[in-house]
TrEMBL record:
This protein's name: Biotin synthase
CC cofactor: [2Fe-2S] cluster; [4Fe-4S] cluster
UniProt xrefs under SMART domains: BATS (SM00876), Elp3 (SM00729)
Record-linked SUPFAM superfamilies: Radical SAM enzymes
Residue ranges of every copy of the Radical SAM core domain listed in the record: 64-293
Function: Catalyzes the conversion of dethiobiotin (DTB) to biotin by the insertion of a sulfur atom into dethiobiotin via a radical-based mechanism.
UniProt pathway annotation: Cofactor biosynthesis; biotin biosynthesis; biotin from 7,8-diaminononanoate: step 2/2
Keyword ATP-binding: no
Gene this chain is encoded by: bioB
Subunit and partners: Homodimer.
Organism encoding this protein: Roseiconus nitratireducens
HAMAP family with a match to the protein in the record: BioB (MF_01694)
Length: 344
């Protein structure tokens, strides 16, 4: 039987109402804040609403960072051999992953990496060691290399050395460290599920020492470890209350040989919603798409930069990143620019 195309067609189903992301962005742009309930709603929002969410989040990103992208360069200055038991980490004492194991690298290797960071257009050189906290030998090595790197290259230095005492934080500040990374990793209520050798409170205390010593705080987390939306929201608001300047958001790269081996709970859309939620809660803060972006965001990586304003270029601590040329191409294709200046 022929269909009569001139006959009235049934109306298309009415879409369910989209959350008022633009109203929330308006409020934030006027100096207001996102509520915890709204943050939960962002994480629970539908894939259908994703473009509206990213478009509203982009308005916040654009206010503080325009179309700039900051690049960070990671250097694993000491690998493996860590006495802690962070379940996501291939370098912990309970991991059987075959990662390189070496003590803190010598001066030449650390300087070579700084040269590479500079050549790649990085704004910040992140000097990372695997440790509960730095011992005296490691502190001395950092105190010697940081002034040398800064005298040769136009790089900010971020040190990620584990838990710090106030005295150690003061020494890092004195030798020229600009910023310390120490991630909260997950929400306070979930922290005991991913680590038993130190506490969430220990991590917060280190961040306070960093702040009180006059350095910037870099702190973020890892999504996809089995936490709830409430845990992610709780972390985002704790980072806001601490006043961290920079937020690296990782997506669990579950490494064989770690307790979280095989855990693959994230869709690319989940990652984008999490990034957007962090932008709404911390609108003026650097937001960096960090480890796991290639695995979890996959072909949607460029969309992440509509709300985030920073990526690591090159490899991660014990896993490979995509080639730097692919990142530069992605940034150019978006019409964005690499910057080495500070956003706020
Ligand atoms: S303290 Fe750092 S290096 Fe050690 S297990 Fe935890 S995350 Fe890994």
């Amino acid at each position: 039987m022929a269909t009569d195309l001139t006959a009235p067609q049934p109306a298309a189903p009415r879409p369910t109402e989209t959350l008022p992301f633009d109203d929330w962005a308006d409020r934030i742009l006027r100096g207001g804040e996102l509520t915890r309930e709204e943050a939960r709603q962002i994480l629970a929002s539908s894939d259908r609403d994703l473009l509206a969410l990213l478009a509203a989040g982009f308005r916040l990103r654009e206010k503080y960072f325009g179309k700039t992208v900051q690049l960070y360069f990671l250097m694993n200055a000491k690998s493996g051999l860590c006495p802690e038991d962070c379940h996501y980490c291939s370098q912990s004492k309970i991991s059987t992953a075959p990662v390189p194991k070496y003590n803190i690298l010598k001066r030449d290797a650390l300087l070579d990496a700084a040269r590479l960071a500079s050549e790649r257009g990085a704004k910040t050189y992140c000097l990372v060691i695997s440790a509960r906290g730095p011992n005296e030998r490691e502190m001395n090595a950092v105190e010697q290399i940081v002034p040398e790197i800064k005298s040769k290259y136009d790089l900010d230095i971020c040190a990620c050395l584990g838990l710090l005492s106030r005295e150690q934080a003061d020494r890092l500040k004195a030798c020229g460290v600009d910023r310390v990374n120490h991630n909260l990793n997950t929400g306070e209520d979930y922290y005991g599920q991913i680590c038993s050798t130190h506490s969430y409170a220990d991590r917060v205390q280190t961040l306070r020492h960093v702040r009180d010593a006059g350095m910037e705080m870099c702190s973020g987390g890892i999504i996809g470890m089995g936490e709830s939306h409430d845990d992610i929201v709780s972390m985002a608001f704790d980072l806001k209350e601490l006043g961290v300047q920079s937020i690296p958001l990782n997506f669990l790269n579950s490494i064989d040989g770690t307790p979280l081996q095989g855990k693959q709970d994230l869709s690319p859309q989940d990652c984008l919603r999490a990034l957007a939620m962090f932008r709404f809660v911390n609108p003026s803060r650097e937001l960096r798409i960090s480890g796991g972006r290639e695995i979890h965001l996959r072909s949607l990586q460029p969309l992440g930069l509509y709300v985030a304003n920073s990526v690591f270029v090159g490899d991660y601590l014990t896993t490979k990143g995509q080639a730097p040329e692919e990142d530069y191409q992605m940034i150019r294709d978006l019409g964005f620019d690499v910057t080495t200046s500070v956003g706020e």
